[in-house]
Amino acid sequence: MAEKNGFKVVIAGAGIAGLTLANMLEKMGLDYVVLEKHSAVAPAVGASIGLFPNGLRVLDQLGLYKAIEDQFEGQALMEKSHTRRPDGTIISTTRRMDVHLVRRYGYGMYFFDRQKLLQILYDKLQHKERVLVSKGVTDVELTTDGVIVTCADGSVFSGTLLVGADGIHSAVRAIMKSLAAKLEPGYFDPAEEDSVPCFYRCNFGIAQNVPGWVAGEQHMVTGRDGSQLVVSGPENKVYWFLFDKLPETKYGKEIPKFTSTDEIDFAKKNYSRPVTEKLTWGQIYDCKISSTLTPLHEVVFKKWFFRRIITIGDSAHKPNPLGGQGGNGAIESCAELCNALMSAKDRAGGSLSSLTTEDVVKAFSETQRARHGRAELVVQRSHETQALFAYEKPWLSAFLVNCIMPNGGAESTLNHLAYIFPGGATIRSLPVPRRPRLVPYEDELPSRPVAGQMVTLARGALVVSMGAAVLLTTKVWRLPLDEIRAAKHYGLHRIHWFGNTGATDVLEKMITGMALHVREGDVMAKLHGVYFLTQLISPLLVYGVEGHRIGNRGTPLSLPSFFSVAMQIHGIGRIAPLHAVLSAFATPESPTGRPVPVEVTKSLVPALTIGFVLPTALLFLPTPNVRAWQYIAAWWQFGPPLFNLLTNIFSSGLRWWESRGRHSKDKEEEKDELLDSYQNRDVPALKSAYAYAFAVQATTHLASLAYGGLHPGVSLWSTFFALPNPFASAWNLASVGNAMFVFLKYDMVVAVSGYVASNLYSVWNLRRLGYIKTHDAIKATAGIVAGQVLVGPGATWAGLWYWRESVLSSFS
């Protein structure tokens, strides 16, 4: 039932924003009238619309999703999404795009005629008589309790408030600014309209029955000073967007308008431009139903409202259409406006009939506050994507498009598309249909995500602290290499694994250093060696796991062998802080980036045992056979990278074993790694690996404390924490063995600081993303601190990752 006693919303524009808002108001029982300047509600203007999960979720609340799905009944969905070079050759392909989006977000991706969506929105309305055509708004009068709107034909309509949903060339916005200039000079920036930029023009259109077109495919074609987006649609249609960078950026009134003659010239110029290896843009253009050439404004206006007038959709925020978020953003703005009106209704005692101008302004402020940041993000990201694909910075685009993006795989592509989905708005007064999905929307999370300055401060604190830790190593890494070189033949035999080369000399020095600490050192040096080397299990395991996570592909974290080799050369004290910082910037934020290939997880424990745990244990076994010990020490030097190598070998073997006997079609169907990862089959093996690392390191920690505490010749403080002043010019150590002991003590202390910082930041990151509650983050932080004493840093890290894996996998 409609709100009585005069509350009424006047909507200017029967586009996507206007008709969506009308449907929402009907659902909430609020009166409205829609004034459309064209002579038809759904004019054939030759445009398409892309609907994504953030927009579809709202339309689903309105009961419109089924009608949208029906447009694609019997049609091929988005099977493949290709990124292509300017010559049409493929850079990368994401298969089953629609399936992935549905599994992740509950909704797919639908490209179809904008006219069809307008018809769906109109057909859903119960009060179609409230949608009036040929009613272009020409004047607005503000009264103490409402608005009076005059149309071009002289008709007049009154209401409580006016919503301008009439596009980038909004008549309502122009009238609103004119009123503000008279009533509150300075409210709007008078120069804002003239500063609206236009970087590109776009020829978009609809074609049908294109020879050689493969249904169910999408093509993103890169190019110099331009790009293309070509998408499949229902009824064997093809929707295209051909973007062309203007010779210079135009602003405001300088932005050109294009005629049909301009479009003909544009078509001739670009006719032979490749879309695929076998299809040109001209071949698509020849099959067009409709098309147009238009400038692309990119703007989010600073203020969207004045008193009882507000603008939404393209009237307030207009992104580059490459990102496909224009219509979806308009739908979100409608939802937030309705949320604000319902809040105003609650504040007014359950009725909107007597809203004051102050009440309306508060509701409008809430609407803009809820949407402005997201609208700016969409405009920014759409512009950056366009700049990337149009090679505005050729060297950067060449590197990212040809090197980084293909290595990132489908997970990276999907996340780039879906960055805006989880934060999507809903109509809070209406139920949200429950559709199975892997990725929670922000309003479904345990906690509200943290954004803004806190995120920057946390990352900054980590970078500064880890930078200080690495800087400290430049002061304390004082290995007497000449003395080690002089001592290297003492009691040792030469190992000629690398012949008479510098590599052999380096290996012998590393073995000598290990011998001075582990074999020739006193009881405290040996105790420290046992403890320190065992505590390397967790960093090795975690670096290996993170290196194989689907979400880390294409990032530095995907190179575990780099870190394992670097820690042997530069010390874990330098590598742990580096990995901590890289993790803070590169760790995937979506739960879908969490999985690790199952065959990798099954390989971790045997690879870790053979590659590192076994040589570490043998290193400390007493043996009179110096040559045998020397080979064990050499084996240990290669232990960290050997762990990574064995993980790859074992996992490849398992992958081959599991693929035996499959038919080629079955292989393509069954081994879609990303789809397989949604089942969380990797979690049990991962947790087993963490439990193994926890058990070994916790046992070593407790045994070391017990041994050191009971041994009369051991001081735990001297063993682990008695360190010379890092800023002293000389330490005057008694022997090269003592120098090695001090180096390893500093290496461990700095490394543990990196472990702890990384652990704490990981907990903060879970809370930042809203995946855990604040009290859970506090408990985890306390556990990290207490764990350093109770079970040791390595076991604490393993236990934390066990818990973290549970948190992230729980969203599936």
Total E-strand runs: 20
CATH topology of the largest domain: FAD/NAD(P)-binding domain
**SSE class:** alpha/beta
Helix content: 40-55%
What is the rounded distance between the termini? 40 Å
- Low-confidence parts, pLDDT < 50 over ≥5 residues? 665-670
Cofactor: FAD
Keywords: FAD, Flavoprotein, Membrane, Monooxygenase, Oxidoreductase, Transmembrane, Transmembrane helix
Transmembrane segments: 604-622, 730-756, 777-803
Protein name: FAD-binding domain-containing protein
Your description of this structure?
This protein is an alpha/beta fold. The strands form 5 sheets. Strands 5-4-13-14-15-12-16 form a 7-stranded mixed β-sheet, with helices on both faces. 47% of the residues are buried. Its cofactor is FAD. InterPro entries: FAD-bd (IPR002938), FAD/NAD-bd_sf (IPR036188), FAD_mOase_fung (IPR050562). Keywords: FAD, Flavoprotein, Membrane, Monooxygenase, Oxidoreductase, Transmembrane, Transmembrane helix. One of its GO terms (molecular function) is FAD binding.
